[in-house]
Give the backbone structure.
Amino acid sequence: MSSFLKNLLAKHKEKKYGKGHRLGDVPTLPVTASREPPTSSQIANSSKSEAARLAGEAALQRLQNSNRPAHPRPTTSASQPPKSEVEKAFALKDHYFGKKEIVDNVSLKPKTKINFTSSVFQPGEKYPIEEVEDKIEQNLIQNLEIEPILVSVTLLFTANYKNKEKLDKCVETMNKFVDNIINNPNEKKYRKIRLENPIFKEKVYSCKYADMVLKKSGFVAKTVKLDDDKEDDVFLFEGDDLEKLENLKSALAIGEAIVPELDRDVKVLKIQESSRMNDFSLSDDFFNLKIEELRKEQALRNEAVEKAGMLRTKAMRERDEQMELRRYNYSIIRIKFPDDFIFQAIFKSKEKFDVLYELVQNSISFDNIPFELIGHSLKKPNGNSNLMGLTLAELGLAPSALLYFKISDLIDPSIKSKIHFYLKPELLEQAQNF
């Protein structure tokens, strides 16, 4: 059973029976970690710091070795094999007509692409946005027989979460049908739901996987005869197992959608040339410009000339800012550390700066040392505390940005001198030349 299903089952049991406790357990209050900066001796003796130092040195050695060719090529012409007649012909053509590159070097660079993952996937499993939702549903269907009611309800929420109003009406109506059966177990009329019932057809049956939820909860699709001998298609609840309906109500109460999660695609880079730090190669996924918007680009450029010569109102400026914010879908951020390693990750442009800061905080090898992320890209560079709550797009960090990691000036220099490598050892082990 996947960890997702275990968590879902635990949540279901807690909803139904209440939170469990071991006999003899004594409730304790949570302990809040101290936020005081560590002393110099704490940094020097920290096992995390030592592990980061060893990993950093190993990463540097590995990257340096990877730059050296395994079998150096001799440079003397005597050791080169004789050219064939075809090679000589091409050499003469290049000499007289010039050598032309058939493909531009820029197009050969791999572009950063956007992928998504999910809590139901295996580690490292990811897909582009046009595939990930189908993959999530397929994964849930494969686990359907483990917990039929819970998983079918999760499928219902997952397939319909984009239309929350419709989903809420479906759940509300389904609960009413179920309540009627539970409260009136001997009334046959409540056990039968006509497929042509306008309320059921509009609010329940129109939602994907709603029929599956009913079938896994004890309902059977049947064709029955009415009093006038006409036939009608219905969902009929058979038997006396009302516990299935109780489980359905509980599952509907805790139901949640499995939403695709952006794959951060975290990388640690060792830049060989400082000029490449700002060398981003982005796929079309990063941009939110549709065809009709592209057609407006020329008109906007023409307006720019007029704007320069006119006094713009606040409303006009706000309109232009909103257009700029909608321009980008994602942002790729690089953080350069003092040890010359670069931490790279992908974010949605609408995500808050807090998310970026927290990811960096969880990736460094020491705790409780205040730091800042600074850079020319930031529209509001006066301290990171002023950036919390603002989106990356609002701060000018989309579609790409280079920031610098800086330990707070309040920290004693002797403490800073004890830090040789900043990122966690497991990240440094994945470092690659760029």
About this structure: The longest helix spans residues 47-66.
